[in-house]
């Protein structure tokens, strides 16, 4: 298997990140940043709600908007909220198999704007367990209190403010926050607009381009649980990723877990046995805002920046999708420190 390397990444919190033209411009900036050329494929985490009025394949439209050669292909994948990490998984597998040497993966924050046809097999399972009840299940199982969640959320916002330079350095421009703002942080992350793009490559591509990679991919693993327990699905994916990589939770120098809800992050950390002091050292979506389908790639971008900043080795991020699904990624930057 060919080793998969992270060459670089870039984000935007501009509203045009929710358009394919804006996403194309983000990709063009990313490639220009490191002088990357010869991209063979673009993989896009499906913009939720992309339908018959838009391009038949949004990834191909994104490639054209980025100004890439006409022979550069693209395809679009969908795993709801985890679509960004699913795009990463597909791009990584293309490189690992030797089929591609240089791939760009991306996702946008665009949420669903169309209504899917009903599915009785899903409805009977999920309709009795809305988010509030899913959180209640996690509180009972992991002995979490609303006060625990409030402390986690306030701490997340404070850490974001303390590490503003890290976030803004990759394109996540933050509004100014007052002390009163931080004290009033909700335990559910507010949605924000934006997009994230990553350039993945093989060792051969990195050598051809003269680019020093930022890290290598150790594992990307998906998991699925009963939809009622979707709040800890990221923890299950993290547990399986650690098992796949033959690594222990305490070997992770840094962890980034989805913070759509404070209870989900806490439950996932407890379920996977991850050390809480190493979770979201620079804060998370409860302080930054949540990028929806692009949030998984945002977690990974923050993870790489934090590992660089701390000169650390292993990192893990995990993001749930829909109906109990999730993906987790483990990276290693030891050779590139």
């Amino acid at each position: 298997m060919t080793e998969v390397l992270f060459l670089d990444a870039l984000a935007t919190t501009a509203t045009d990140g929710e358009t394919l033209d804006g996403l194309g411009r983000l990709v063009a900036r990313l490639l220009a940043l490191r002088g990357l050329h010869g991209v063979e494929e673009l993989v896009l985490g499906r913009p939720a709600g992309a339908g018959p009025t838009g391009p038949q394949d949004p990834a191909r439209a994104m490639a054209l908007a980025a100004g890439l050669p006409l022979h550069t292909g693209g395809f679009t994948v969908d795993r709801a909220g985890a679509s960004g990490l699913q795009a990463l998984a597909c791009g990584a597998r293309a490189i690992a198999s030797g089929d591609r040497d240089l791939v760009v993966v991306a996702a946008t924050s665009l949420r669903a704007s169309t209504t899917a046809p009903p599915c009785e097999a899903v409805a009977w399972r999920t309709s009795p367990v809305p988010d509030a009840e899913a959180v209640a299940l996690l509180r009972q199982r992991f002995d979490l209190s609303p006060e625990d969640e409030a402390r986690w959320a306030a701490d997340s916002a404070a850490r974001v403010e303390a590490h503003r330079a890290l976030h803004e350095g990759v394109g996540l421009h933050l509004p100014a926050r007052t002390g009163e703002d931080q004290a009033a942080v909700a335990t559910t992350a507010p949605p924000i607009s934006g997009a994230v793009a990553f350039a993945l490559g093989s060792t051969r591509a990195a050598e051809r381009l003269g680019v020093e990679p930022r890290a290598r991919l150790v594992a990307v693993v998906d998991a699925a649980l009963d939809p009622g327990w979707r709040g800890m699905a990221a923890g299950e994916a993290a547990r399986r990723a650690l098992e796949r990589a033959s690594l222990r939770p305490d070997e992770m120098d840094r962890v980034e877990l989805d913070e759509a809800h404070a209870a989900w992050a806490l439950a996932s950390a407890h379920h996977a046995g991850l050390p809480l002091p190493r979770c979201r050292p620079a804060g998370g979506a409860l302080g930054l805002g949540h990028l929806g389908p692009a949030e998984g790639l945002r977690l990974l971008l923050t993870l790489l920046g934090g590992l660089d900043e701390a000169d650390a080795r292993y990192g893990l991020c995990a993001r749930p999708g829909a109906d109990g699904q999730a993906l987790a990624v483990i990276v290693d930057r030891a050779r590139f420190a």
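The chain has two domains: 5-110+191-215, 125-170+217-336. Residues 146-162 form the longest helix (17 residues).
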